[in-house]
Amino acid sequence: MGNFAADTALAGGGGRYRARISPEWKVWGPLGGYVAAIALRAMGAETDLRRPASITCQFLAMADFDEVDVEVGTLRRGRRSHALQVHIRQRGNPILAASGWVVDDALTGLEHDFAAMPAVPPPAALRSYAELSANYSDWFPVWHGSIDGRPVQFELEEKPGDPLWHTWMRVVEPLPEGDPFLDAARSLMWLDLMMWNAASAPHPWPPSHIAPNLDVSAVIHAPAAEHEWLLCDANAPLAREGLIGCAGRVWTPTGRLVASGTSCLFCVPNPDRP
User: Fold this and answer.
1) In the chain, where are the structural domains located?
2) Is the sign of the CA dihedral 152, 153, 156, 162 positive or negative?
3) Is CATH 2.40.160.210 correct for 4-104+120-269?
4) 69, 109, 112, 199 - which has most CB atoms within 10 Å?
5) Alpha-carbon distance 25 to 5, whole Å?
6) Counting Cβ atoms within 10 Å, is residue 56 exposed (0-12), middle (13-18) or buried (19+)?
Protein backbone atom coordinates (compact mmCIF):
# COMPACT_ATOMS: atom_id res chain seq x y z
CA MET A 1 0.00 0.00 0.00
CA GLY A 2 1.30 3.43 -0.92
CA ASN A 3 1.92 5.91 1.88
CA PHE A 4 1.75 9.40 0.35
CA ALA A 5 3.59 11.09 3.22
CA ALA A 6 6.42 8.56 3.36
CA ASP A 7 6.67 8.13 -0.41
CA THR A 8 7.13 11.88 -1.01
CA ALA A 9 9.56 12.38 1.88
CA LEU A 10 12.98 13.94 1.27
CA ALA A 11 16.38 13.52 2.90
CA GLY A 12 19.11 16.15 2.84
CA GLY A 13 19.29 19.91 3.19
CA GLY A 14 20.88 23.08 1.95
CA GLY A 15 19.04 22.96 -1.35
CA ARG A 16 20.05 19.38 -2.18
CA TYR A 17 17.79 16.46 -1.37
CA ARG A 18 17.13 12.88 -2.33
CA ALA A 19 13.83 11.03 -2.65
CA ARG A 20 12.79 7.58 -3.80
CA ILE A 21 10.14 7.08 -6.49
CA SER A 22 7.90 4.33 -5.16
CA PRO A 23 6.29 1.71 -7.46
CA GLU A 24 3.13 2.03 -5.38
CA TRP A 25 2.29 5.11 -7.53
CA LYS A 26 2.57 3.47 -10.94
CA VAL A 27 0.28 4.30 -13.88
CA TRP A 28 2.09 4.21 -17.27
CA GLY A 29 5.12 5.08 -15.15
CA PRO A 30 5.13 7.03 -11.88
CA LEU A 31 1.98 9.16 -11.55
CA GLY A 32 3.08 12.63 -12.64
CA GLY A 33 1.25 14.37 -9.82
CA TYR A 34 3.03 12.15 -7.33
CA VAL A 35 6.41 13.28 -8.68
CA ALA A 36 5.18 16.90 -8.67
CA ALA A 37 4.22 16.43 -5.02
CA ILE A 38 7.86 15.70 -4.21
CA ALA A 39 8.81 19.01 -5.83
CA LEU A 40 6.25 20.93 -3.78
CA ARG A 41 7.44 19.33 -0.56
CA ALA A 42 11.01 20.24 -1.52
CA MET A 43 9.94 23.88 -1.77
CA GLY A 44 8.55 23.61 1.73
CA ALA A 45 11.80 22.16 3.03
CA GLU A 46 13.76 25.13 1.71
CA THR A 47 11.76 28.06 3.11
CA ASP A 48 10.66 29.30 6.50
CA LEU A 49 7.34 30.57 5.10
CA ARG A 50 4.47 28.12 5.57
CA ARG A 51 1.75 28.88 3.02
CA PRO A 52 2.20 27.30 -0.44
CA ALA A 53 0.59 29.63 -2.98
CA SER A 54 1.30 28.29 -6.46
CA ILE A 55 3.41 25.87 -8.46
CA THR A 56 3.99 25.09 -12.13
CA CYS A 57 5.62 21.78 -13.09
CA GLN A 58 7.04 20.66 -16.44
CA PHE A 59 7.20 16.89 -16.87
CA LEU A 60 10.46 16.29 -18.78
CA ALA A 61 10.89 12.51 -18.68
CA MET A 62 9.44 9.43 -17.05
CA ALA A 63 11.34 8.42 -13.94
CA ASP A 64 12.32 4.90 -12.99
CA PHE A 65 11.28 3.55 -9.62
CA ASP A 66 14.53 4.48 -7.94
CA GLU A 67 16.21 7.35 -6.16
CA VAL A 68 16.13 10.88 -7.58
CA ASP A 69 18.15 14.00 -6.83
CA VAL A 70 16.14 17.09 -5.95
CA GLU A 71 17.76 20.52 -6.18
CA VAL A 72 15.97 23.62 -4.84
CA GLY A 73 17.01 27.23 -5.36
CA THR A 74 15.66 30.71 -4.68
CA LEU A 75 14.45 32.86 -7.56
CA ARG A 76 13.45 35.79 -5.36
CA ARG A 77 13.02 36.28 -1.64
CA GLY A 78 10.85 39.04 -0.22
CA ARG A 79 9.81 39.79 3.33
CA ARG A 80 6.48 37.95 2.94
CA SER A 81 7.00 35.88 -0.21
CA HIS A 82 9.52 33.41 -1.57
CA ALA A 83 9.82 32.22 -5.18
CA LEU A 84 11.66 28.92 -5.59
CA GLN A 85 12.65 26.60 -8.41
CA VAL A 86 13.04 22.82 -8.24
CA HIS A 87 14.89 20.42 -10.51
CA ILE A 88 14.44 16.65 -10.15
CA ARG A 89 17.02 14.48 -11.87
CA GLN A 90 17.71 10.77 -11.99
CA ARG A 91 21.22 9.59 -12.82
CA GLY A 92 21.82 13.09 -14.22
CA ASN A 93 18.79 13.04 -16.52
CA PRO A 94 16.12 15.77 -16.03
CA ILE A 95 12.78 14.39 -14.82
CA LEU A 96 10.84 17.48 -13.70
CA ALA A 97 11.35 21.23 -13.46
CA ALA A 98 9.12 23.39 -11.29
CA SER A 99 8.80 26.89 -9.93
CA GLY A 100 6.40 28.33 -7.43
CA TRP A 101 5.63 30.80 -4.68
CA VAL A 102 5.34 30.41 -0.92
CA VAL A 103 3.95 33.27 1.16
CA ASP A 104 3.47 34.40 4.74
CA ASP A 105 0.50 32.61 6.30
CA ALA A 106 -0.58 35.83 8.05
CA LEU A 107 -1.32 37.82 4.88
CA THR A 108 -4.42 40.01 4.71
CA GLY A 109 -6.07 41.66 1.71
CA LEU A 110 -9.17 41.69 -0.48
CA GLU A 111 -11.76 39.05 0.38
CA HIS A 112 -14.46 37.49 -1.83
CA ASP A 113 -15.66 34.00 -2.67
CA PHE A 114 -17.83 33.36 -5.73
CA ALA A 115 -16.66 29.73 -6.09
CA ALA A 116 -19.53 27.24 -6.49
CA MET A 117 -18.93 23.52 -6.21
CA PRO A 118 -20.79 21.28 -8.69
CA ALA A 119 -24.02 19.84 -7.33
CA VAL A 120 -22.91 16.26 -6.70
CA PRO A 121 -23.75 13.63 -4.07
CA PRO A 122 -21.41 13.41 -1.06
CA PRO A 123 -18.83 10.62 -1.00
CA ALA A 124 -20.84 8.63 1.57
CA ALA A 125 -23.69 8.34 -0.96
CA LEU A 126 -21.48 6.84 -3.69
CA ARG A 127 -19.73 3.53 -4.29
CA SER A 128 -16.01 3.15 -4.88
CA TYR A 129 -14.43 1.99 -8.14
CA ALA A 130 -13.56 -1.29 -6.40
CA GLU A 131 -17.25 -1.88 -5.68
CA LEU A 132 -18.37 -0.84 -9.15
CA SER A 133 -15.88 -2.90 -11.16
CA ALA A 134 -14.00 -5.96 -9.99
CA ASN A 135 -11.10 -5.40 -12.39
CA TYR A 136 -10.78 -1.61 -12.14
CA SER A 137 -7.49 -1.81 -10.27
CA ASP A 138 -6.04 -3.92 -13.09
CA TRP A 139 -6.00 -0.88 -15.39
CA PHE A 140 -3.49 1.08 -13.34
CA PRO A 141 -1.54 -0.47 -10.43
CA VAL A 142 -1.88 2.69 -8.32
CA TRP A 143 -5.55 1.75 -7.74
CA HIS A 144 -4.49 -1.46 -5.96
CA GLY A 145 -4.08 0.31 -2.65
CA SER A 146 -2.59 3.79 -2.81
CA ILE A 147 -5.66 5.78 -3.87
CA ASP A 148 -9.40 5.30 -3.77
CA GLY A 149 -12.15 7.01 -5.77
CA ARG A 150 -15.93 7.31 -5.73
CA PRO A 151 -17.19 8.55 -9.12
CA VAL A 152 -20.36 10.58 -9.50
CA GLN A 153 -21.02 8.74 -12.79
CA PHE A 154 -19.71 5.35 -13.88
CA GLU A 155 -20.29 3.31 -17.03
CA LEU A 156 -18.94 -0.23 -17.24
CA GLU A 157 -19.10 -0.02 -21.04
CA GLU A 158 -17.11 3.25 -21.06
CA LYS A 159 -19.57 5.04 -23.32
CA PRO A 160 -18.41 8.42 -24.69
CA GLY A 161 -19.79 11.37 -22.76
CA ASP A 162 -19.05 14.96 -21.84
CA PRO A 163 -15.39 15.93 -21.21
CA LEU A 164 -15.93 16.09 -17.46
CA TRP A 165 -14.74 14.10 -14.47
CA HIS A 166 -16.41 14.43 -11.08
CA THR A 167 -14.97 11.97 -8.59
CA TRP A 168 -14.31 12.02 -4.86
CA MET A 169 -10.71 10.95 -4.20
CA ARG A 170 -8.66 10.04 -1.16
CA VAL A 171 -5.26 8.61 -0.36
CA VAL A 172 -5.77 5.28 1.37
CA GLU A 173 -3.14 5.88 4.05
CA PRO A 174 -4.26 8.93 6.10
CA LEU A 175 -1.98 11.97 6.10
CA PRO A 176 -0.26 13.12 9.27
CA GLU A 177 -1.31 16.57 10.48
CA GLY A 178 0.72 19.75 10.64
CA ASP A 179 2.43 19.95 7.22
CA PRO A 180 0.80 22.48 4.88
CA PHE A 181 3.04 21.43 1.99
CA LEU A 182 2.03 17.78 2.31
CA ASP A 183 -1.62 18.85 2.39
CA ALA A 184 -1.17 21.02 -0.74
CA ALA A 185 0.84 18.27 -2.46
CA ARG A 186 -2.18 15.96 -2.23
CA SER A 187 -4.33 18.56 -4.05
CA LEU A 188 -1.59 19.01 -6.66
CA MET A 189 -1.59 15.27 -7.29
CA TRP A 190 -5.38 15.25 -7.74
CA LEU A 191 -5.15 18.13 -10.24
CA ASP A 192 -2.68 16.14 -12.32
CA LEU A 193 -4.64 12.88 -12.13
CA MET A 194 -8.04 14.33 -13.01
CA MET A 195 -7.06 15.89 -16.36
CA TRP A 196 -6.69 12.69 -18.44
CA ASN A 197 -9.90 11.31 -17.00
CA ALA A 198 -11.82 14.33 -18.31
CA ALA A 199 -9.94 14.37 -21.63
CA SER A 200 -10.67 10.71 -22.41
CA ALA A 201 -14.37 10.84 -21.50
CA PRO A 202 -15.71 11.90 -24.97
CA HIS A 203 -13.91 9.02 -26.75
CA PRO A 204 -14.65 5.29 -27.18
CA TRP A 205 -12.64 2.92 -25.02
CA PRO A 206 -9.88 2.01 -25.57
CA PRO A 207 -8.98 5.41 -27.05
CA SER A 208 -6.88 5.69 -30.19
CA HIS A 209 -4.39 7.85 -28.27
CA ILE A 210 -3.21 8.33 -24.72
CA ALA A 211 -2.25 11.81 -23.59
CA PRO A 212 0.39 12.26 -20.89
CA ASN A 213 0.47 15.63 -19.14
CA LEU A 214 3.16 17.97 -20.40
CA ASP A 215 2.68 20.10 -17.31
CA VAL A 216 0.47 20.91 -14.36
CA SER A 217 -0.06 24.30 -12.73
CA ALA A 218 -1.85 24.87 -9.45
CA VAL A 219 -3.02 27.72 -7.28
CA ILE A 220 -3.47 26.63 -3.67
CA HIS A 221 -6.46 28.47 -2.23
CA ALA A 222 -7.04 26.87 1.14
CA PRO A 223 -5.91 24.02 3.40
CA ALA A 224 -7.89 20.78 3.50
CA ALA A 225 -5.95 18.62 5.92
CA GLU A 226 -9.03 17.80 8.00
CA HIS A 227 -10.84 16.24 5.02
CA GLU A 228 -10.22 12.65 3.89
CA TRP A 229 -12.25 12.97 0.66
CA LEU A 230 -11.76 15.75 -1.90
CA LEU A 231 -13.81 16.29 -5.06
CA CYS A 232 -11.94 16.27 -8.37
CA ASP A 233 -13.78 18.57 -10.79
CA ALA A 234 -12.14 18.47 -14.24
CA ASN A 235 -13.09 19.79 -17.67
CA ALA A 236 -11.34 19.25 -21.02
CA PRO A 237 -13.39 21.29 -23.51
CA LEU A 238 -11.04 21.17 -26.50
CA ALA A 239 -8.74 18.58 -28.07
CA ARG A 240 -7.11 19.69 -31.33
CA GLU A 241 -4.07 18.71 -33.41
CA GLY A 242 -2.51 16.53 -30.74
CA LEU A 243 -2.98 18.81 -27.73
CA ILE A 244 -5.70 18.84 -25.09
CA GLY A 245 -6.35 21.77 -22.77
CA CYS A 246 -7.70 20.86 -19.35
CA ALA A 247 -8.75 22.75 -16.24
CA GLY A 248 -9.53 21.41 -12.82
CA ARG A 249 -10.61 22.30 -9.31
CA VAL A 250 -10.40 20.53 -5.95
CA TRP A 251 -13.20 20.91 -3.40
CA THR A 252 -13.85 19.83 0.17
CA PRO A 253 -17.14 18.10 1.10
CA THR A 254 -18.17 21.39 2.74
CA GLY A 255 -17.93 23.20 -0.61
CA ARG A 256 -14.67 25.07 -0.05
CA LEU A 257 -12.44 25.51 -3.10
CA VAL A 258 -9.03 24.12 -2.16
CA ALA A 259 -7.02 24.35 -5.39
CA SER A 260 -7.45 25.09 -9.07
CA GLY A 261 -5.18 24.53 -12.04
CA THR A 262 -4.54 23.61 -15.65
CA SER A 263 -2.68 21.06 -17.73
CA CYS A 264 -1.69 20.67 -21.36
CA LEU A 265 -1.86 17.06 -22.56
CA PHE A 266 0.20 15.67 -25.45
CA CYS A 267 -1.39 12.92 -27.57
CA VAL A 268 0.57 9.82 -28.59
CA PRO A 269 -0.79 6.63 -30.24
CA ASN A 270 -2.14 4.13 -27.72
CA PRO A 271 0.26 1.16 -27.78
CA ASP A 272 -2.39 -1.12 -26.26
CA ARG A 273 -5.08 -0.46 -28.85
CA PRO A 274 -5.46 -3.32 -31.38
Assistant:
1) 4-104+120-269
2) negative
3) yes
4) 199
5) 12
6) middle
